[in-house]
Design a protein that fits this description.
The complex is a heterodimer of chains A (189) and B (177). Chain A is an all-beta fold and 189 residues long. Chain A is 2% helix and 44% strand. In chain A, strands 3, 5, 6, 7, 10, 12 and 13 form a 7-stranded antiparallel beta sheet that branches. In chain A, strands 1, 4, 8, 9 and 15 form a 5-stranded antiparallel beta sheet that branches. A 3-stranded antiparallel beta sheet of chain A has the order 2-11-14, with no helix packed on it. In chain A, strand 5 (71-79) and strand 6 (85-91) form a beta hairpin. Chain B has 177 residues and is mainly β. Helix content of chain B is 2%, strand content 43%. Chain B contains 1 helix and 14 strands, in the order E-E-E-E-E-E-E-E-E-E-H-E-E-E-E. Chain B has one helix spanning 135-138; strands at residues 15-17, 35-37, 44-51, 55-63, 71-78, 83-86, 90-91, 98-108, 111-119, 125-129, 142-144, 157-158, 165-166, 168-174. In chain B, the strands form 3 sheets. In chain B, strands 3, 5, 6, 7, 9, 11 and 12 form a 7-stranded antiparallel beta sheet that branches. Chain B has a 4-stranded antiparallel beta sheet with strand order 1-14-4-8, with no helix packed on it. The chains are: A mainly beta (189), B mainly beta (177). Chains A and B meet through strand 1 of A and strand 3, helix 1 and strand 12 of B.
Chain lengths: 189, 177
Protein backbone atom coordinates (compact mmCIF):
# COMPACT_ATOMS: atom_id res chain seq x y z
CA UNK A 1 0.00 0.00 0.00
CA UNK A 2 2.91 2.38 0.62
CA UNK A 3 5.57 3.40 -1.87
CA UNK A 4 9.04 4.50 -0.76
CA UNK A 5 9.47 8.18 -1.39
CA UNK A 6 5.81 9.01 -1.27
CA UNK A 7 4.60 11.41 1.34
CA UNK A 8 1.59 9.85 2.98
CA UNK A 9 -1.12 12.46 3.58
CA UNK A 10 -3.03 12.47 6.83
CA UNK A 11 -6.53 11.34 5.86
CA UNK A 12 -9.50 13.02 7.46
CA UNK A 13 -11.01 9.66 8.38
CA UNK A 14 -9.65 6.12 8.66
CA UNK A 15 -11.89 3.04 8.69
CA UNK A 16 -11.07 0.00 10.77
CA UNK A 17 -11.20 -2.35 7.82
CA UNK A 18 -11.98 -0.51 4.62
CA UNK A 19 -9.14 1.93 4.00
CA UNK A 20 -5.48 2.21 3.05
CA UNK A 21 -4.20 2.04 6.59
CA UNK A 22 -6.28 -0.93 7.64
CA UNK A 23 -6.90 -4.36 6.24
CA UNK A 24 -7.51 -2.73 2.88
CA UNK A 25 -10.63 -4.68 2.27
CA UNK A 26 -12.73 -3.03 -0.36
CA UNK A 27 -16.45 -2.72 -0.06
CA UNK A 28 -17.04 -5.61 -2.45
CA UNK A 29 -20.60 -5.42 -1.31
CA UNK A 30 -22.12 -2.18 -0.18
CA UNK A 31 -22.10 -2.15 3.63
CA UNK A 32 -25.47 -2.57 5.25
CA UNK A 33 -26.95 -2.61 8.71
CA UNK A 34 -26.65 -5.66 10.93
CA UNK A 35 -27.30 -6.44 14.55
CA UNK A 36 -24.37 -6.40 16.95
CA UNK A 37 -22.52 -9.61 17.52
CA UNK A 38 -24.05 -10.96 20.66
CA UNK A 39 -26.40 -10.49 23.54
CA UNK A 40 -24.72 -8.95 26.58
CA UNK A 41 -21.27 -7.45 26.29
CA UNK A 42 -18.64 -7.61 23.60
CA UNK A 43 -15.52 -5.63 22.69
CA UNK A 44 -13.61 -6.19 19.46
CA UNK A 45 -10.22 -5.09 18.08
CA UNK A 46 -9.22 -4.37 14.45
CA UNK A 47 -5.59 -3.70 13.42
CA UNK A 48 -4.46 -0.66 11.48
CA UNK A 49 -0.97 0.44 10.44
CA UNK A 50 -0.29 4.14 10.81
CA UNK A 51 2.61 5.19 8.55
CA UNK A 52 3.02 8.76 9.78
CA UNK A 53 2.37 10.88 12.84
CA UNK A 54 -1.37 11.33 13.30
CA UNK A 55 -3.43 13.32 15.75
CA UNK A 56 -6.73 11.58 16.42
CA UNK A 57 -9.57 13.90 17.30
CA UNK A 58 -12.57 11.59 17.51
CA UNK A 59 -13.83 8.07 16.95
CA UNK A 60 -16.63 7.45 14.46
CA UNK A 61 -19.02 4.64 13.64
CA UNK A 62 -22.04 4.09 11.42
CA UNK A 63 -25.21 3.38 13.35
CA UNK A 64 -27.43 0.78 11.74
CA UNK A 65 -31.12 0.94 11.18
CA UNK A 66 -32.27 0.02 14.64
CA UNK A 67 -30.95 0.54 18.11
CA UNK A 68 -32.34 1.22 21.53
CA UNK A 69 -29.94 3.81 22.93
CA UNK A 70 -27.61 1.28 24.52
CA UNK A 71 -24.12 2.26 25.66
CA UNK A 72 -21.23 1.76 23.29
CA UNK A 73 -17.54 2.72 23.36
CA UNK A 74 -14.77 3.09 20.79
CA UNK A 75 -11.04 3.51 21.29
CA UNK A 76 -7.44 2.77 20.36
CA UNK A 77 -4.98 0.18 21.73
CA UNK A 78 -1.28 -0.24 21.00
CA UNK A 79 0.06 -3.41 19.48
CA UNK A 80 2.07 -5.66 21.77
CA UNK A 81 4.64 -6.28 19.04
CA UNK A 82 3.14 -9.69 18.50
CA UNK A 83 0.10 -8.76 16.41
CA UNK A 84 -2.21 -8.47 19.38
CA UNK A 85 -3.77 -5.49 21.11
CA UNK A 86 -1.96 -4.39 24.27
CA UNK A 87 -2.09 -1.15 26.23
CA UNK A 88 -4.96 1.26 25.82
CA UNK A 89 -4.09 4.63 24.26
CA UNK A 90 -7.45 6.35 24.60
CA UNK A 91 -11.16 5.77 24.25
CA UNK A 92 -14.44 7.63 24.27
CA UNK A 93 -15.84 6.22 27.47
CA UNK A 94 -19.46 5.11 27.50
CA UNK A 95 -21.54 6.86 24.85
CA UNK A 96 -25.25 6.46 24.22
CA UNK A 97 -25.85 5.22 20.70
CA UNK A 98 -27.69 7.84 18.68
CA UNK A 99 -30.10 7.83 15.77
CA UNK A 100 -30.27 5.04 13.22
CA UNK A 101 -28.64 5.33 9.78
CA UNK A 102 -26.38 8.03 11.12
CA UNK A 103 -22.66 8.60 11.34
CA UNK A 104 -21.91 9.22 15.00
CA UNK A 105 -18.72 10.67 16.40
CA UNK A 106 -17.40 11.03 19.93
CA UNK A 107 -14.38 12.77 21.42
CA UNK A 108 -11.69 10.77 23.14
CA UNK A 109 -12.21 11.20 26.86
CA UNK A 110 -8.62 12.32 27.36
CA UNK A 111 -8.52 14.74 24.44
CA UNK A 112 -6.76 14.39 21.13
CA UNK A 113 -4.39 11.42 20.90
CA UNK A 114 -1.01 11.72 19.18
CA UNK A 115 -0.06 8.45 17.48
CA UNK A 116 3.48 7.91 16.18
CA UNK A 117 3.80 5.49 13.25
CA UNK A 118 3.10 1.89 14.15
CA UNK A 119 0.47 -0.80 14.48
CA UNK A 120 -2.61 -0.01 16.53
CA UNK A 121 -5.93 -1.70 17.20
CA UNK A 122 -9.22 0.12 16.87
CA UNK A 123 -11.70 -1.13 19.44
CA UNK A 124 -15.48 -1.09 19.43
CA UNK A 125 -17.82 -2.46 22.05
CA UNK A 126 -21.39 -2.41 23.21
CA UNK A 127 -23.67 -3.34 26.03
CA UNK A 128 -26.82 -5.15 25.06
CA UNK A 129 -29.47 -5.72 27.68
CA UNK A 130 -32.08 -7.85 25.98
CA UNK A 131 -31.07 -9.02 22.54
CA UNK A 132 -28.44 -8.25 19.96
CA UNK A 133 -31.10 -6.24 18.15
CA UNK A 134 -30.54 -3.50 20.72
CA UNK A 135 -27.46 -2.35 18.78
CA UNK A 136 -26.81 -2.26 15.05
CA UNK A 137 -24.03 -0.90 12.89
CA UNK A 138 -23.16 -0.94 9.21
CA UNK A 139 -20.90 -3.81 8.22
CA UNK A 140 -19.66 -6.13 5.52
CA UNK A 141 -19.45 -9.88 5.85
CA UNK A 142 -16.20 -11.64 6.63
CA UNK A 143 -15.07 -15.25 6.72
CA UNK A 144 -14.46 -17.50 9.69
CA UNK A 145 -11.37 -18.75 7.83
CA UNK A 146 -9.91 -15.25 7.73
CA UNK A 147 -10.94 -13.51 10.91
CA UNK A 148 -7.58 -14.23 12.56
CA UNK A 149 -6.10 -11.82 10.00
CA UNK A 150 -8.10 -8.92 11.19
CA UNK A 151 -9.94 -9.32 14.42
CA UNK A 152 -9.68 -10.16 18.12
CA UNK A 153 -12.14 -9.76 20.92
CA UNK A 154 -11.68 -9.11 24.62
CA UNK A 155 -11.78 -12.33 26.61
CA UNK A 156 -14.63 -11.10 28.73
CA UNK A 157 -16.83 -8.38 27.30
CA UNK A 158 -16.24 -5.32 29.47
CA UNK A 159 -18.94 -2.77 30.11
CA UNK A 160 -18.57 0.45 28.07
CA UNK A 161 -16.95 2.94 30.41
CA UNK A 162 -14.93 0.19 32.09
CA UNK A 163 -12.58 -0.86 29.36
CA UNK A 164 -9.30 -2.49 30.44
CA UNK A 165 -6.05 -0.52 30.45
CA UNK A 166 -4.43 -3.58 28.90
CA UNK A 167 -6.21 -5.89 26.49
CA UNK A 168 -6.64 -9.60 27.10
CA UNK A 169 -7.44 -10.63 23.56
CA UNK A 170 -8.74 -13.93 22.28
CA UNK A 171 -9.62 -15.03 18.78
CA UNK A 172 -12.77 -13.43 17.50
CA UNK A 173 -15.88 -15.56 17.43
CA UNK A 174 -17.57 -13.49 14.74
CA UNK A 175 -16.07 -12.50 11.38
CA UNK A 176 -18.19 -9.43 10.65
CA UNK A 177 -16.27 -6.32 9.56
CA UNK A 178 -17.89 -3.32 11.21
CA UNK A 179 -17.71 0.18 9.73
CA UNK A 180 -16.01 2.46 12.26
CA UNK A 181 -12.74 4.28 12.70
CA UNK A 182 -10.89 7.43 13.65
CA UNK A 183 -11.30 11.09 12.72
CA UNK A 184 -8.07 13.06 12.50
CA UNK A 185 -7.42 16.72 13.10
CA UNK A 186 -7.40 17.14 9.31
CA UNK A 187 -11.19 16.78 9.35
CA UNK A 188 -12.46 20.31 8.83
CA UNK A 189 -15.36 20.22 11.25
CA UNK B 1 19.52 -3.21 -20.06
CA UNK B 2 18.44 -6.72 -20.99
CA UNK B 3 15.06 -5.36 -21.91
CA UNK B 4 14.45 -3.95 -18.45
CA UNK B 5 13.87 -0.30 -17.70
CA UNK B 6 15.21 1.20 -14.51
CA UNK B 7 12.58 2.02 -11.92
CA UNK B 8 11.94 5.74 -11.51
CA UNK B 9 13.13 7.38 -8.33
CA UNK B 10 9.49 7.91 -7.52
CA UNK B 11 6.40 6.44 -9.00
CA UNK B 12 4.27 9.04 -10.67
CA UNK B 13 0.71 9.12 -11.73
CA UNK B 14 -1.47 11.06 -14.09
CA UNK B 15 -4.88 11.37 -12.51
CA UNK B 16 -6.65 11.41 -9.17
CA UNK B 17 -10.13 9.96 -9.32
CA UNK B 18 -12.77 9.91 -6.62
CA UNK B 19 -13.49 6.25 -7.31
CA UNK B 20 -9.89 5.03 -7.19
CA UNK B 21 -9.01 2.94 -4.13
CA UNK B 22 -5.57 4.57 -4.21
CA UNK B 23 -6.93 8.08 -4.11
CA UNK B 24 -9.91 7.74 -1.79
CA UNK B 25 -9.37 7.46 1.94
CA UNK B 26 -12.15 5.06 2.87
CA UNK B 27 -12.83 2.57 0.12
CA UNK B 28 -16.04 3.14 -1.75
CA UNK B 29 -18.25 0.25 -2.70
CA UNK B 30 -17.08 0.03 -6.26
CA UNK B 31 -16.63 1.83 -9.51
CA UNK B 32 -19.82 3.61 -10.37
CA UNK B 33 -21.15 2.99 -13.84
CA UNK B 34 -24.71 4.15 -13.36
CA UNK B 35 -25.68 7.75 -13.78
CA UNK B 36 -28.40 9.55 -11.90
CA UNK B 37 -29.59 13.10 -11.45
CA UNK B 38 -27.66 15.47 -9.20
CA UNK B 39 -29.33 15.07 -5.80
CA UNK B 40 -30.06 18.71 -5.03
CA UNK B 41 -29.85 21.84 -7.15
CA UNK B 42 -26.83 23.99 -6.32
CA UNK B 43 -25.63 21.58 -3.63
CA UNK B 44 -21.85 21.27 -3.78
CA UNK B 45 -20.39 17.83 -3.10
CA UNK B 46 -16.83 17.73 -1.75
CA UNK B 47 -15.07 14.38 -2.14
CA UNK B 48 -11.75 13.89 -0.27
CA UNK B 49 -8.76 12.57 -2.18
CA UNK B 50 -5.16 11.87 -1.27
CA UNK B 51 -2.32 13.60 -3.11
CA UNK B 52 0.83 11.65 -2.31
CA UNK B 53 3.48 13.64 -4.18
CA UNK B 54 3.72 17.09 -5.73
CA UNK B 55 1.48 17.38 -8.74
CA UNK B 56 0.19 20.06 -11.09
CA UNK B 57 -3.53 20.03 -11.81
CA UNK B 58 -4.04 20.60 -15.52
CA UNK B 59 -7.69 19.71 -15.99
CA UNK B 60 -10.79 18.72 -14.05
CA UNK B 61 -13.34 16.20 -15.28
CA UNK B 62 -16.79 14.91 -14.38
CA UNK B 63 -18.66 11.88 -15.73
CA UNK B 64 -21.88 13.01 -17.36
CA UNK B 65 -24.87 10.70 -17.65
CA UNK B 66 -27.51 10.28 -20.33
CA UNK B 67 -29.12 13.62 -19.53
CA UNK B 68 -27.39 16.97 -19.27
CA UNK B 69 -28.99 20.18 -18.16
CA UNK B 70 -28.19 23.66 -16.99
CA UNK B 71 -24.78 24.41 -15.59
CA UNK B 72 -21.96 22.66 -13.82
CA UNK B 73 -18.97 23.85 -11.82
CA UNK B 74 -15.92 22.06 -10.46
CA UNK B 75 -13.04 23.07 -8.20
CA UNK B 76 -10.31 21.78 -5.90
CA UNK B 77 -10.17 22.79 -2.25
CA UNK B 78 -7.58 22.22 0.42
CA UNK B 79 -8.51 20.50 3.68
CA UNK B 80 -9.28 23.83 5.32
CA UNK B 81 -11.85 24.67 2.66
CA UNK B 82 -9.92 27.19 0.60
CA UNK B 83 -10.58 26.96 -3.13
CA UNK B 84 -7.32 26.48 -5.03
CA UNK B 85 -8.46 26.18 -8.62
CA UNK B 86 -11.86 26.41 -10.25
CA UNK B 87 -13.66 25.98 -13.55
CA UNK B 88 -16.36 28.59 -12.99
CA UNK B 89 -19.94 28.04 -14.10
CA UNK B 90 -20.16 26.21 -17.44
CA UNK B 91 -22.96 24.65 -19.44
CA UNK B 92 -23.18 20.93 -18.75
CA UNK B 93 -22.54 19.33 -22.13
CA UNK B 94 -22.01 15.91 -23.61
CA UNK B 95 -24.27 13.01 -22.72
CA UNK B 96 -22.83 9.75 -21.44
CA UNK B 97 -19.29 11.03 -21.69
CA UNK B 98 -16.77 12.78 -19.53
CA UNK B 99 -16.76 16.57 -19.57
CA UNK B 100 -13.22 17.90 -19.27
CA UNK B 101 -12.32 21.43 -18.24
CA UNK B 102 -9.00 23.20 -18.69
CA UNK B 103 -8.04 25.03 -15.54
CA UNK B 104 -5.15 27.20 -14.46
CA UNK B 105 -2.14 25.00 -13.81
CA UNK B 106 -2.06 24.62 -10.04
CA UNK B 107 0.59 22.95 -7.91
CA UNK B 108 -0.65 20.65 -5.14
CA UNK B 109 1.76 19.50 -2.46
CA UNK B 110 1.13 16.16 -0.73
CA UNK B 111 -1.90 16.22 1.50
CA UNK B 112 -5.65 15.81 1.59
CA UNK B 113 -7.77 17.78 -0.85
CA UNK B 114 -11.38 17.88 -1.96
CA UNK B 115 -12.58 17.58 -5.55
CA UNK B 116 -15.81 19.57 -5.65
CA UNK B 117 -18.69 19.46 -8.09
CA UNK B 118 -22.06 21.15 -8.34
CA UNK B 119 -24.96 21.32 -10.79
CA UNK B 120 -27.54 24.09 -10.64
CA UNK B 121 -30.42 21.67 -11.28
CA UNK B 122 -31.66 18.14 -10.59
CA UNK B 123 -32.14 17.09 -14.21
CA UNK B 124 -28.54 16.77 -15.31
CA UNK B 125 -27.02 13.38 -14.56
CA UNK B 126 -23.61 12.31 -13.31
CA UNK B 127 -22.19 8.84 -12.82
CA UNK B 128 -22.33 8.12 -9.10
CA UNK B 129 -22.34 5.34 -6.55
CA UNK B 130 -25.78 5.40 -4.91
CA UNK B 131 -24.57 3.93 -1.63
CA UNK B 132 -27.13 4.16 1.12
CA UNK B 133 -26.79 6.94 3.64
CA UNK B 134 -24.80 7.54 5.74
CA UNK B 135 -22.04 5.73 3.84
CA UNK B 136 -21.01 8.85 1.94
CA UNK B 137 -20.39 10.52 5.27
CA UNK B 138 -18.12 7.61 6.20
CA UNK B 139 -16.22 8.14 2.96
CA UNK B 140 -15.51 11.65 4.22
CA UNK B 141 -17.78 13.39 1.71
CA UNK B 142 -19.01 16.84 2.72
CA UNK B 143 -21.64 19.08 1.16
CA UNK B 144 -22.81 22.68 1.02
CA UNK B 145 -26.17 24.02 -0.08
CA UNK B 146 -26.65 27.11 -2.26
CA UNK B 147 -23.15 26.70 -3.63
CA UNK B 148 -23.46 27.33 -7.36
CA UNK B 149 -21.01 28.67 -8.44
CA UNK B 150 -18.53 27.05 -6.09
CA UNK B 151 -17.45 29.53 -3.41
CA UNK B 152 -13.95 30.80 -2.70
CA UNK B 153 -14.22 29.39 0.81
CA UNK B 154 -16.21 26.24 1.46
CA UNK B 155 -18.60 25.92 4.36
CA UNK B 156 -18.37 22.19 4.92
CA UNK B 157 -21.26 20.19 6.34
CA UNK B 158 -21.66 16.50 7.12
CA UNK B 159 -24.64 15.20 5.15
CA UNK B 160 -26.31 12.28 6.92
CA UNK B 161 -28.75 11.56 4.08
CA UNK B 162 -26.56 11.84 0.99
CA UNK B 163 -26.57 8.68 -1.14
CA UNK B 164 -24.59 9.98 -4.08
CA UNK B 165 -20.83 9.57 -4.58
CA UNK B 166 -19.97 11.27 -7.89
CA UNK B 167 -17.28 10.29 -10.36
CA UNK B 168 -14.91 13.26 -10.67
CA UNK B 169 -11.21 13.54 -11.42
CA UNK B 170 -8.15 15.77 -11.52
CA UNK B 171 -5.87 15.24 -14.52
CA UNK B 172 -2.25 15.91 -13.60
CA UNK B 173 1.32 16.36 -14.41
CA UNK B 174 3.22 14.74 -11.59
CA UNK B 175 6.56 16.19 -10.55
CA UNK B 176 9.09 13.38 -10.42
CA UNK B 177 11.99 13.74 -8.03
Amino acid sequence: MFQPGWTEPMPTMVAAYHSMWSLGRSFLAVPSSANWETTGLRMIYAPITIPRLVVVKKMWWLNGTANTSMNIEAGIYRDTGGFQPGAKVASTGAVTQGAGNYIQTADLSTGNAVLPPGVYWLALGGSVSDASTDISFFRTSGSSSQEGFYKYQESTGPQPGSWPSTATPVEASNSTLWVYGIVTTAYPL
Amino acid sequence: MSGLSPAPARAHYHAIWTMSMYDSQVFVSGIGTTASAWPSASMAIYVPVRVRQPAVVKKLAISNGAAVSGNVDMAVYNAAGTRLVTVGGTTQAGTSTEQVFDVTDTLLLPGMYYIAGVLDNTTGQVVADPDAAPLCAAYGVLTQTSAYVLPATATFAVNQTLAYYPSMAMLLTTLVA
